[in-house]
Design brief:
heterodimer, A: Sufe protein. Chain: A, 10 helices, 8 strands, B: alpha/beta, Aspartate Aminotransferase, domain 2, Aspartate Aminotransferase, domain 1, 2 domains, seven-stranded mixed β-sheet, four-stranded antiparallel β-sheet, 13 strands, about 15% strand
Chain lengths: ~280, ~400
C-alpha cells in the first residue's frame, strides 16, 4: 500500500472542483487511457484576468486525482502569469508530498495547466517537441531533459517516477542514461566543482573526521590518532595507544586513515606520521 | 470497522484450529526433531504426521515425496534449478506467459545465462495455447513449468493431461500449485507431475512455510545444502511450529474438499460476480469462467483505474486486489491480463475478488451494495466516461 499523506487522501476521497466548465477560457488535456492516467483541466477568468474558477476530470489512481484536485485549488485567484510559475514540486508540496513513484501525477498536473494556458493565449498547440525516447509512454527527449533539470534527477528510475519514461519495455534505458549523463556533465549540482575548502574549514573537517570516524574505529584495537598539524595538503598525525608500538601502523595510516580522510575531506590529502 | 476480506489469493486468515495446533511448538515443545532424546524425538513424530497430511491433501504416493520449504517461491526455485542441474545437456526451458513472478523472473534470469526460454501464450480467456505448447517441446527441453491455477483470474490449466504428455517425452514437469492446493481435489500420483510447489498461507496456515513435492525417482539436487534434514534434500533445522500448522491446515482443507465445501464458496462467488456485472454497466469477467477456481473472480470495470477503486473499497473495509499498474509500483497493468489481450480500458480497472471458506453471504451483500456507487463516482470524474457512454449508445 502506498504511503499517502492525509492531504492526498483527503483530496482523493473529497476531490475539489470535479467537472467541466462549458465556456472555459482554457482547457488542457494530458495523458491517455493506455498510459493509465489522464487529466483534463479547465479554467475560467474574471474581468481582472485572474482565474475565477478551475475544474478537472481525471482517470487515474488516488494520487492522480488528488494532484488534479490540488491544482484546481492552487490556481484560483492567480493571474495566468502567476499560474505559469507553478511547478510539479509545488503541487506535490501542496499535498504534503507524494510517494517518489507517484511524482508523475504532479508532472501531469503541471503539464495540463501549461496546456490550458497555451490554449487560452490562442497559441497553436505546441507540436511535439523533440524525438520520442520512450515508445511505451510516448515521452520525448525534451520532456526528459526538462524533468531531469527541474527536479535534479540522477537515475533512470527517477526519470520513470517523474514522467514514466523507461517504465515499460525498458528498451530506452540507454537513451535516458545518455540524456542524464549529458546534463550531469554540465550543470548538475552534484557534479559541480566542489569549491575549495578554506584552511579553517579543512582543519575543522579533518578534526571532526578523526574524532567521529577514525578514532572510534582504532579504539577497537586500543589505538588512537592525534592531529598535530595541517600544512597545505599534508596532514601530520601522531599515533597513540597500541598503534604507537604496532608494526602495522604505517599500513593502517596509509590504507585506512589516508583513504578515509580523502573520502571525507578532500581527495588530495597526504597523511604523514610525526614522532 | 469490520474488515471484509476478499483477497484470499494474496493470503488467508490463519485458521484458529491451526494457531491452536502450532502454539505448543512455540513454547513448551521446543525440541529439535533431529535430537536423540525423546524431547526432540516427539517433535519428529508430529512432523511425520504433518507430512502425511500434506501427502494426503495432494494424493502423493508416499509422505517421503514431501519436503518442507520456506515458501512457494523457494519451492519453485528449487524445482527449476534441480531440473536444469540434473539435465546439464538440455538448455531449453518452458513455462506460460501468465506464471507467477517466482517462475517468470527466474526464467528471465536464466535466459540471460544462456537458456532458451519459451513462454507459451494464452488466449483472450487465459487458456493455454496447446498447439504452440506441443510445437515447442523438444529434445532440448529440460523442464516445463506450468501453474495449475492462475492467481489473478483463477483459470485452471489442464495440468493432469499436459503433464502426462510431457513425461512421456522424458521431460521434467513442474507445477506451481500455490493457488490450486486445497481449492480443488488433486491426485498427484495419477498425473505426470514430477514436482509441485505449494504454500501454506494460501490455505489458512501461516506465512513462511511451503512444500515441494518430488515424485519418487525424480532426479534432484538440493538448493539449500546443509544437514540431513528432509533426507538431505533441504538442509536447515525444521520450522517446526509452522510445519505442524501446515499439517493441520492440510487436514482441514482436505476435510473441506471432501465435504464439497467449495460449492458454497463458488455460489457466493457466482452471486457476487453476476450481480456486479448486472448492476454496473460496462463491466466484464476476465478469463475462462468454466475452468476456474471456485473462489476467484477478476472483474473489469471499464474507464476507471484500479488503485482508486481499491482505496475507495478500503474506506468500507473491503479488501481486494487489482491488476492495475498503480498498485504494483510498475507502470504497466498486470502481465497476466496483458498476455490475455485484455484492452487497456479494462485492464487498468480490473479488480480481483478472492473468497475463502470463511466468507459469508452477509459480506457478499455488503460488497454488492458498495461497489456500484464507487464505480459510478469514479466514472463521474473520468474524462473518458461520457464519451464511452455516447460511443456505446451509437453502436
Amino acid at each position: 500500500m502506498w504511503e499517502y499523506t492525509d492531504k492526498v487522501k483527503d483530496h482523493f476521497l473529497n476531490p475539489r472542483n470535479v467537472g467541466i466548465i462549458e465556456d472555459a477560457d482554457g482547457v488542457g488535456e494530458v495523458g491517455s487511457i493506455a498510459c493509465g492516467d489522464a487529466l483534463t483541466f479547465y479554467f475560467k477568468l474574471d474581468e481582472q484576468g485572474k482565474i475565477k474558477d478551475a475544474t478537472f476530470q481525471t482517470f487515474g489512481c488516488a494520487s492522480a486525482i488528488a494532484s488534479s484536485s490540488a491544482l484546481t485549488e492552487m490556481v484560483k485567484g492567480l493571474t495566468l502569469e502567476e499560474a505559469k510559475k507553478i511547478t510539479n514540486e509545488d503541487i506535490a508540496e501542496y499535498l504534503g508530498g507524494l510517494p517518489k513513484e507517484k511524482m508523475h501525477c504532479s508532472v501531469m498536473g503541471r503539464d495540463a495547466l501549461e496546456k490550458a494556458i497555451t490554449c487560452h493565449l490562442g497559441e497553436p498547440e505546441k507540436e511535439i517537441e523533440g524525438e520520442i525516447v520512450c515508445e511505451c509512454f510516448g515521452v520525448t527527449d525534451v520532456e526528459i531533459d526538462r524533468v531531469v533539470r527541474e527536479n535534479h534527477l540522477s537515475t533512470i528510475e527517477d526519470v520513470t517516477d517523474y514522467v514514466k519514461a523507461g517504465g515499460g519495455c525498458g528498451n530506452c534505458h540507454d537513451r535516458i542514461q545518455e540524456i542524464i549523463d549529458s546534463i550531469l556533465g554540465t550543470d548538475h549540482p552534484a557534479k559541480k566543482k566542489v569549491p575549495a575548502l578554506t584552511n579553517l574549514k579543512k582543519i575543522k573537517l579533518i578534526e571532526e573526521s578523526i574524532e567521529r570516524e577514525i578514532n572510534p574505529s582504532l579504539k577497537k584495537d586500543s589505538g588512537r590518532l592525534e592531529l598535530v598539524d595541517v600544512d597545505g595538503n599534508r596532514v601530520l598525525v601522531r599515533m597513540g595507544g597500541n598503534c604507537a608500538s604496532c608494526a602495522k601502523s604505517p599500513i593502517t595510516l596509509k590504507h585506512y586513515v589516508e583513504s578515509k580522510l580523502r573520502e571525507l575531506v578532500s581527495p588530495d590529502l597526504i597523511v604523514e606520521e610525526v614522532q | 470497522m469490520k474488515v471484509i476480506y476478499l483477497d484470499n489469493n494474496a493470503t488467508t486468515k490463519v485458521a484458529p484450529e491451526v494457531v491452536e495446533a502450532m502454539l505448543p511448538y512455540l513454547s513448551e515443545y521446543y525440541g529439535n526433531p533431529s535430537s536423540m532424546h525423546s524431547f526432540g524425538g516427539d517433535v519428529a513424530a508430529e512432523i511425520k504426521q504433518a507430512r502425511e497430511n500434506v501427502a494426503y491433501l495432494i494424493g502423493a504416493e508416499s509422505p517421503d515425496e514431501i519436503i518442507f520449504t520456506s515458501c512457494g517461491t523457494e519451492s519453485d526455485g528449487t524445482a527449476i534449478r534441480a531440473a536444469i542441474e540434473s539435465n546439464p545437456d538440455k538448455k531449453h526451458i518452458m513455462a506460460s506467459r501468465v506464471e507467477h513472478p517466482a517462475i517468470k523472473n527466474l526464467y528471465e534470469t536464466l535466459s540471460k545465462k544462456g537458456f532458451r526460454v519459451t513462454f507459451v501464450p494464452v488466449d483472450h480467456e487465459g487458456r493455454l495455447d496447446l498447439d504452440y505448447f506441443y510445437q515447442h517441446l523438444s529434445d532440448e527441453t529440460a523442464i516445463v513449468s506450468l501453474m495449475w491455477a492462475n492467481n489473478e483470474t483463477g483459470v485452471i490449466f489442464p495440468v493432469e493431461e499436459l503433464s502426462r504428455e510431457v513425461k512421456d517425452r522424458g521431460i521434467v514437469f513442474h507445477t506451481d500449485a500455490v493457488q490450486a492446493a486445497g481449492k480443488f481435489p488433486i491426485d498427484i500420483k495419477t498425473t505426470g507431475v514430477d514436482m509441485l510447489s505449494l504454500s501454506g498461507h494460501k490455505f489458512h496456515a501461516p506465512k513462511g512455510i511451503g512444500v515441494l513435492y518430488i515424485r519418487k525417482g525424480t532426479k534432484f539436487s538440493p538448493y539449500m545444502i546443509g544437514g540431513h534434514q528432509e533426507h538431505g534434500r533441504r538442509g536447515g533445522t525444521e520450522n517446526v511450529a509452522s510445519i505442524i500448522a501446515l499439517g493441520k491446515a492440510a487436514e482441514m482443507a482436505k476435510k473441506h474438499l471432501n465435504e464439497n465445501g467449495y460449492e458454497r464458496v463458488g455460489k457466493l462467488r457466482d452471486r457476487l460476480e453476476a450481480t456486479l456485472i448486472e448492476q454496473i454497466p460496462q463491466s466484464m469477467v476476465n478469463g475462462d469462467r468454466e475452468h476456474r477456481l471456485l473462489n476467484t473472480t477478476s472483474v473489469a470495470f471499464e474507464y476507471v483505474e484500479g488503485e482508486a477503486i481499491l482505496l475507495m473499497m478500503n474506506e468500507h473495509g473491503i479488501c481486494a486486489s487489482s491488476g492495475s499498474a498503480c498498485t504494483s509500483g510498475s507502470l504497466e497493468p498486470s502481465h497476466v491480463l496483458r498476455a490475455m489481450g485484455v484492452p487497456f480500458t479494462a485492464a487498468h480497472g480490473s479488480i480481483r475478488f478472492s473468497l475463502s471458506r470463511y466468507t459469508t453471504a452477509e459480506e457478499i451483500d455488503v460488497v454488492i451494495e458498495k461497489m456500484p456507487p464507487i464505480i459510478k463516482r469514479l466514472r463521474g470524474m473520468s474524462p473518458f466516461w461520457k464519451e464511452a457512454v455516447e460511443l456505446k449508445a451509437q453502436n
